[in-house]
Specification:
Keywords: Periplasm, Signal, Transport. The chain is mainly beta. It has strands at 12-16, 30-32, 35-39, 44-55, 58-70, 78-91, 96-105, 110-121, 124-134, 139-143, 157-159.
């Protein structure tokens, strides 16, 4: 994907995050919550109360999650998508992201987070409005937001740590 030109109000930044070699997208999804409401006719399960979903080394947490599933015959349900809302966090061994909302498309192996997104790796921090992570390739795209009415455009911002300079000075012998 090509980044927009420098005069476009909406900025995009791409980088590798949530490394695919460390994440098994076919691992089972373990869910933990205070409450579950199953709407079997709609094929939706609503989890609420400090919801935590773990898949391998990846953890997704939120206040509430709607799990959309399919069920063929008497077989086990197959999860298609998880919609997370409220205090959404995505955590891996190398990266952390937070936002107001998130969608894990299990079939496409993507996570999309929206609303005051912050992505962090060590001391590096990126901010934007929409983060899309491809869990297969490890590529993430962070977007700002175009202007709306009287609200100005929101640009992608970041702070990157700079490693200390290695000194080439050797102690002089006397």
């Amino acid at each position: 994907m090509q980044a927009p030109c420098c005069c476009c109000p909406r900025r995009r930044l791409q980088r590798r995050v949530f490394q695919p070699e460390n994440h098994d997208t076919e691992a089972p999804l373990d869910v933990d919550a205070e409450r579950i409401e199953v709407r079997d006719k709609e094929k939706i399960a609503v989890f609420s109360g400090s919801v935590k979903v773990v898949q391998g080394d990846l953890t997704l947490t939120a206040d509430e999650m709607r799990v959309y599933y399919q069920q063929v015959g008497d077989g086990d349900p197959t999860i298609q998508r998880l919609d997370a809302s409220g205090n959404v966090r995505l955590i891996s061994p190398t990266d952390k992201a937070r936002a107001r909302n998130g969608v894990y498309d299990v079939e496409e192996r993507t996570v999309t987070m929206t609303g005051d997104v912050q992505l962090q790796r060590r001391q590096d921090v990126l901010n934007g409005q929409r983060l899309q992570v491809n869990l297969t390739s490890g590529t993430a795209t962070l977007d700002g937001a175009p202007p709306r009415g009287n609200t100005p455009a929101i640009r992608v911002t970041g702070r990157f740590s700079v490693p200390p300079k290695q000194s080439d000075d050797k102690p002089q012998s006397r």
